[in-house]
Amino acid sequence: MTNKPEVPLQRPYRSKFSLFDLAKIGFFFFGFPNNTFGSVDVTSDCNLRCEHCYFFEQERVAQCSLEQWRDKFEQMKAEGFRFYQCTWVGGEPLLRPELIELGRQYFKFNTITTNGSLPLPDWKDVSWCISVDGGQAYHDRFRNQPGLYETIKRNIRQSEGQRITIAYCITRQNQADIETSLAEWYQNPKVRNMVFSFYTPIRGLDDDLWLDWPDKDRLLDKLMELKQQYGDFLVNTKPALELMKSSSARSVTDNCLFASTSFAFDPAGGVKKPCMLGPKADCDRCGCIVPFFLRSLTDRKLILKDLKQRFFSSLQRSRG
Ligand code: SF4
Ligand code: SF4
Predict the structure, then answer these.
(1) Banded model confidence at residue 28, pLDDT cuts 50, 70, 90
(2) Which of 35, 197, 202, 215 is 20 to 30 Å from the Cα of 250, by its Cα?
């Protein structure tokens, strides 16, 4: 880990109760609804070939045409599907923007996860997750694409008013870049926030990116510390980070809410199981933040603890 960067806190720390807290109260009383969120693999293609890509470890399937997707969405609508939130993934989803153009009209909230190598279309109604796994040297090497980091920065610079999140997947190899990356993106006015996940081992791929549990626990503590400094810019919540630790992770992944409550479609419109990461993901060592986040939103004990803590810190701040 590098020395702690000096970061002026220019962005507000969330101090008030939000819609998000109201949602938690809703889950507290009514549970988490099925099929409210999920993912669509927009395309089987990608303009990069990262060595540790889970996507290309999956079986290749033929892509549905636009018409077939339209028919599928219409059928889902007729069957009462909620169409609440969808994450458009890939391959590289921006290689097929016409499907997102179509699909995002059905869903209330849309997120696009991209490798950032292509200019961002001027869609202000969606949220963007741009994958950046480390500092410039590491990222360009890891993604087998010299100059990619600069391209990403240029595409972000040229964007206007898009809601951009930097998504950093922590591995054994890029753990040293966490703090400097966070400090760098924090200073970028076009970036709304940053989220950290951990590498999930995939059957068939080398295990060299996986962090041992003690290392992972140490980094989770580090992220909680950084959360104090960066506030809401660091999207991961403290309760969800706690749950990712070795002492509790299996209790979450053995009953993964992502697998049981979300939908995931492959490029052919088929249902992917157990989740968007596909059947080769090692659930016992899952580093995806979603199941932990969902548990923190739905576990009544955790909700009460978090709301209590937030209420008192909010009170303290308003008095200070
Ligand atoms: S950019 Fe994403 S989809 Fe493309 S090869 Fe890399 S990890 Fe896979
Ligand atoms: S890989 Fe993770 S998110 Fe996917 S089903 Fe397994 S535990 Fe859940």
Answers:
(1) low
(2) 35
Tens digits of per-residue pLDDT, 239-282? 999 999 999 999 999 999 999 999 999 999 999 999 999 999 99
Residue 290 Cα to ligand 2 midpoint, Å, equals 8
pLDDT (average), residues 226-246? 95
Q: Which atom of ligand 1 is nearest to the CA of 117?
A: 1
| Element counts in the chain: helices (H) and strands (E) | 12, 7
Q: Cβ of 65: how many Cβ atoms within 10 Å?
A: 11
Q: Is the peptide bond before 8 cis (omega within 30 degrees of 0)?
A: no
Q: Fold for 32-299, please state it.
A: TIM Barrel (3.20.20)
Protein residue with its CA nearest to atom 7 in ligand 1: 53
Q: Which residues line ligand 2 (CB under 6 A)?
A: 200, 253, 256, 258-259, 274-275, 277, 281, 283, 286, 288, 290-291
The amino acid sitting at 195 is: V
Phi-psi region of 7 (alpha: psi -120 to 50; beta: other; left: phi over 0): beta
- Write the single-letter amino acid at 262: S
